[in-house]
Amino acid sequence: MANESRPCPCGIGDRFDYEGCGQEVQVEHIEAYVCKPASTDKAVIVIHDIFGWQLPNTRCMADMLAANGYIAICPDFFAGREAWKPSDDWSKFDDWLKTRDARKIKKEADAVLKYLKEQCGAKKLGIVGFCWGGVAVRHLMMTYPELKAGVSLYGLIKDSDDISNLLNPTFFIFAEKDEFIPLHQVTLLEQKLKKNCKVDYEVKIYPGQTHGFVHRRREDINPQDKPYIEEGRKDVINWLNKYV
């Protein structure tokens, strides 16, 4: 739960007890987790939150995508720098975050795209990101035209954010009770998109949900949230299926 001492909504939520079905690989200067279905030319880049590429929850989401027919890759977009830990001193979070700018990941994105195309035979590409990764998705969807669909899940919004130059369809998932993404900011985002965006988009707010609900809430111990967790995950797959 976010509070005064935590300047970010990323309380760990439910940490999944999950081993993962894929494998770790080296992609140029970074490591990555990859899970592949039997045969496909469709791939999705999965961008982690502040807890990094090894968080079991994020690997579970990658495996979910693979089970739906996509090569799923979750690279270390922190490029070897330490991920945040729930036990870390939250008073130092802002300084930590300054060294991990979600808008400055071109070197890593270039390496991953090259790997997917040359090593995995991927021809149709999408991208999904959670929290910190949700911000990264917005940036990359304005940078790489080969990314045919993007899903940004509860990426923090700044009033100054300009996302009117999205190159391909992008889906934005938010939680109604996210303490760090006020609904008025979501409304402002929608207004900017409606006025300036030239590609398909959707902004959806899930009632009663809190930050991280799609990948950091376990339906078996959050029964009241289960319909929204399942709906969010299904919506991610449907968006990718529509455009990738």
UniProtKB/TrEMBL annotation:
Compartments in which it is found: Cytoplasm, Cytosol
Superkingdom in the source lineage: Eukaryota
Domain annotation Dienelactone hydrolase: ranges: 30-243
Glycoprotein in keyword set: no
Swiss-Prot/TrEMBL keywords: Cytoplasm, Hydrolase
Main location: cytoplasm
Family as reported in the entry's similarity comment: Belongs to the dienelactone hydrolase family.
The protein's name: Carboxymethylenebutenolidase homolog
Organismal lineage: Eukaryota, Metazoa, Chordata, Craniata, Vertebrata
